[in-house]
Specification:
156 residues; alpha+beta; SsrA-bd_prot_CS
Length: 156
């Protein structure tokens, strides 16, 4: 079978810095026509967005989709709440995670899959400051090792 083509439109890189990602889910999203056109043009921001479960439905908050230039009266509010489309089983699992202390739902990616806009929703646990410092130290040590190894190979 042919591999499904996925075009990533937006990523929330800050989420990987601020949270431990436990599990990810793929969700559809309810949008209007002008929002889809704006997303296809890449005018979307996931930076401060989060999801919440209300009345056994999942909603996405603070995802900024810039108004479509040619949308006129059909443009919606850029920061409006958007409903996510998940199976009942997945929603029940998310409810179980979110009721535990310290867990939250964060969108990590927004992409097109077979012409449909999808959101990768992550169950995340917040990092403490020392966890962030530890990650930075680990990354620096790795780059230092690679630099040292490269110098050794070149004979410097």
């Amino acid at each position: 079978m042919a591999k499904e083509e996925i075009k990533i439109i937006a990523q929330n890189k800050k989420a990987y810095h601020d949270y431990f990602i436990e599990e990810t889910y793929e969700a559809g999203i309810v949008l209007s026509g002008t929002e889809v056109k704006s997303i296809r043009m890449g005018k979307v921001n996931l930076k401060d967005s989060f999801a919440r479960v209300e009345n056994n439905e999942v909603y996405l908050y603070n995802m900024h989709i810039s108004p479509y230039e040619k949308g006129n009266i059909f443009n919606k509010d850029p920061l409006r709440t958007r409903k996510l489309l998940l199976n009942r089983h997945e929603i029940n699992k998310l409810i179980g995670y979110v009721t535990r202390k310290g867990y939250t739902l964060i969108p990590t990616k927004l992409y097109l899959k077979r012409g449909l806009v999808k959101v990768e929703l992550a169950v995340a646990r917040g990092k403490k400051l020392y966890d962030k410092r530890e990650d930075i130290a680990r990354r620096d040590a790795k780059s230092e090792l690679e630099k040292h190894f490269k110098e050794k190979q070149l004979g410097i």
